[in-house]
Every structure is written in structure tokens, then in C-alpha cells.
Amino acid sequence: MSAQALLPILLLCALLLQAHGGWLFRKTKMSTEVKPCVKKVKPHLCKFNCENYQSCQANNICCSTFCGNVCMNIL
């Protein structure tokens, strides 16, 4: 393979690695266990049940309360 063909292929590979997250791809993994709520829970939140953090919308976490697991705002 000629050097003229090898250089664009190497450049393409380097660009694809950067788009993928770099040389060392690091995954951030959230905890799947449901922990007790830190804030005081209001009864109207009991209608927003969840099984894990993926069941809740953005900026919400799944935490354990007196009425089961609920989605609670983290802000």
C-alpha cells in the first residue's frame, strides 16, 4: 500500500477515535440501586413511581420513601 493511501486512512482513524471519546473511552455509570430520599417527600409525589433512575425524567432521581420508590427532583 502506498504512503499516499496510508496517510488518509490513519487520519480518518484518528478522527473517528476522537469522535468516539478519545483513546481511553471512559463510561460514567450511575448507580442502579435505589437509595432513601435525602429531602422530605410530599404526598403528591407518591403518584410518580419508579423502579430505577432510568424510569425518571431528566434532573430527577429514583429514591425510596414511605409510599414506595418515587421520582424526585434533584435541584
Automatic annotation (TrEMBL):
It comes from the Eukaryota. Residues 1-21 form the signal peptide. Keywords: Signal. This is WAP four-disulfide core domain protein 10A. The gene is WFDC10A.
